[in-house]
Design brief:
The protein is of the alpha+beta class. 30% of the residues lie in helices and 26% in strands. The chain is built from 3 helices and 4 strands.
């Protein structure tokens, strides 16, 4: 299972605090897109990262290679819709995954 980390960079450092109505619509489509990929087992983890330097998004995906990962991110509505976002994609050559879903005891 080749794992890729996809880092979604927003169109400006002040996003999402000054999100426009059209950007909000794109974000709703973005959420639905990634929820579908998660439901199908392609996306393992997706969500916003509250980095003090600026919020960005993360998607950890199971994609056979860099081209497949790039195809998934380019189909994201925030990219396909020309919202000014961009992805950095990185291969994770080794990943330790839990084998079953169990409650975190911490």
């Amino acid at each position: 299972m080749p794992i890729h980390l996809c880092k979604l960079l927003p169109p400006r450092p002040t996003f999402p605090g000054d999100m426009t109505p059209s950007e909000a619509e794109l974000m709703q489509k973005h959420t639905a897109y990634w929820q579908d990929l998660a439901d199908r087992g392609i996306a393992l983890v997706v969500g916003p990262v509250l980095d003090p330097a600026g919020i960005w998004g993360i998607a950890i995906i199971d994609a056979k290679d860099a081209d497949a990962a790039a195809a998934l991110t380019s189909d994201d509505p925030v990219i396909a819709g020309g919202g000014g976002f961009r992805y950095d994609i990185h291969l994770v050559p080794q990943a330790i995954l839990r084998t079953t879903h169990q409650p975190n005891p911490l």
